[in-house]
Write a structure and sequence with these properties.
Blueprint lengths: L3 E8 L2 H12 L2 E7 L2 E7 L17 E6 L8 E5 L3 H10 L3 E9 L3 E7 L5 E7 L2
Parallel strand pairs: 1-4, 5-8
Antiparallel strand pairs: 1-5, 2-3, 3-4, 6-7, 7-8
């Protein structure tokens, strides 16, 4: 059984969204340049310094990014052993690839897919 390991929240205005979530939930937010825009790391629970994975069982952290046409709703991300294999299974089962495997050096890789119902979800593959 594969776990949900991450969430992402798209925003029209990242500064406004960061202020909203920080003021209500006290999340730690750190923005960094990534690809064509900024990505905000969202820390909702303590993490291991080396792996950056949550230390509390069942907890997940997430991110925020500027809303786009293809990523316009919140995204849940599922951990898989191999993204390319998962994308093939997804496509064979009626889904489609939204964004192919993209590596994050020293951490792993991610991809986005559309399920059979039109929902966009994410995949995560950890670096061994």
């Amino acid at each position: 059984m594969r776990k949900v390991v991450h969430f992402e929240i798209p925003a029209e205005d990242l500064d406004r969204a960061k202020k909203f979530y920080d003021s209500i939930f006290g999340w730690e937010l750190q923005t960094m340049p990534m690809g064509d825009g900024d990505y905000t790391s969202v820390k909702t629970t303590a993490t291991d310094e080396q792996t950056q994975m949550p230390t509390e069982p069942g907890s997940i952290n997430g991110g925020m990014f500027e809303r786009t046409e293809r990523l316009s709703s919140p995204v849940i991300t599922i951990d898989v052993e191999a993204i390319d294999d998962a994308l093939k299974q997804i496509e064979d089962s009626g889904g489609s690839t939204v964004a192919p495997r993209t590596a994050i050096p020293g951490m792993g890789a991610f991809a986005y897919f559309k399920d059979s119902e039109g929902n966009v979800l994410g995949l995560w593959e950890s670096t061994p």
